[in-house]
Amino acid sequence: MTQNLNIIFFFIDVLILVFCFLFSIRIKKLNVSINSMKYFDIFFLVALFLLFLHISASTKILSSEVYFWANKLSVLFYFLFYCRFFYNVLNQSRKLTASFILLSSFTSVGIILLLLIIKSNLPWYALVLSNLGLLFLSGVYFLDYLKGVDFKPLSKSPEFWVIFGISASSILMIPVSLFILVLEGHLLESHFLLLASVNQLSFIFQYGAIIKAFLCIIQVQAK
Q1: Do residues 203 and 11 lie in contact, with contact meaning Cβ atoms separated by under 8 Å?
Q2: What is the band of 1 on the pLDDT scale with cuts at 50, 70, 90?
Q3: What are the Cα distances from residue 208, in Å, to 101, 113, 148, 162, 169?
Q4: pTM (2 decimals)?
Q5: Cβ(177)–Cβ(130) under 8 Å?
Q6: Residues 27, 215 contacting (CB under 8 angstroms)
Q7: pLDDT tens column, 4-53
Q8: Residue 205 vs residues 73, 164, 202, 219: alpha-carbon distances, Å
Q9: On the CB side of 123, how many CA atoms lie within 13 Å of its CA?
Q10: What is the mean pLDDT of residues 73-95?
Q11: What secondary structure letter does DSSP report for 63?
């Protein structure tokens, strides 16, 4: 049952990822002026490349070690990409900018150290740190929004949907990664597959929310 669930979520994840890439290409052709929403085509191209490596390693076409290292580096890439996104979204006050630079720099260095020091195939420690950093930045965004005088409807904001997806994904991914770390070596295969399914569900939420963000941009451009 858990294996079937894992396969279903994997294929849904792949399907949504392909749709995200196609939408990102369309958004690029629209010459959108929203800085925070630029370069998502590169983001999803990297995600698709990582998926290709994952399938290649699973079918023994490619060495699994290549995939593991690519997977480790992708944690840093995703974090830095989303840091760029948050930098363009958050209020550019001196205090907030300084805090943002400090947090993103500290977390990036922490991720690099964890990837280098901990000799594990899957980067669970770095993943936890990365998601904690992104969840904190999401919280800063919502607090910044509540302090604003001009309240824009969040449901029509592409930035909101991206951050909603990041938040939902991080909230699911952090406990899953911690469970795997704490129970490493004691997990039954069925339990691990169940946790892996929840992990895939977190990506489905994240990518689904980004598609909604793209649709918001397309609707605005169509007017």
Answers
A1: no
A2: low
A3: 28, 31, 27, 9, 11
A4: 0.89
A5: no
A6: no
A7: 777 888 888 889 999 999 999 988 887 776 778 888 999 999 999 888 88
A8: 22, 9, 5, 21
A9: 24
A10: 84
A11: -
Residue among 92, 85, 1, 81 nearest 35 (CA): 85
Contact at 8 Å (CB) between 78 and 123?
no
The DSSP string of 105-127 is: HHHHHHHHHHHHHS--SS-HHHH
Closest CA to 140 of 189, 92, 105, 79: 92
Structure tokens at 211: 């598609």
Q: Reduce the DSSP state of residue 187 to 3 states and report it.
A: coil
Angle at 196 between CA 112 and CA 203, to 5 degrees: 70
Residue type, 55: I
- Cβ atoms of residues 79 and 130 within 8 Å: yes
Angle between helices 189-222 and 158-182 (to 10 degrees): 170
Output the six-digit token pair for 106: 């500290």
3-state secondary structure of 150: coil
